[in-house]
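Per your request, structure below.
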């Protein structure tokens, strides 16, 4: 039996296309909470919106 191809959502494709042009950063929060670490990183690097920040949490801070 022939398999049907999964349709790709135009909305999702457009979102991916936009994200390709947005700068993305990945940081670890260290001793700070994630939001505090992100704010400090943005201030230190002088990042202007739009930008995407991925913050990895430590197990010890919540």
């Amino acid at each position: 039996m022939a398999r049907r191809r999964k349709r790709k959502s135009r909305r999702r494709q457009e979102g991916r296309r936009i994200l390709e042009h947005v700068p993305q950063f990945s940081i670890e929060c260290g001793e700070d909470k994630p939001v505090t670490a992100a704010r400090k990183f943005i201030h230190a690097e002088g990042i202007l919106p739009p930008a995407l920040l991925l913050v990895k949490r430590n197990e010890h801070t919540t």
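The helical segments are 10-20, 34-45.

Regards,
D.
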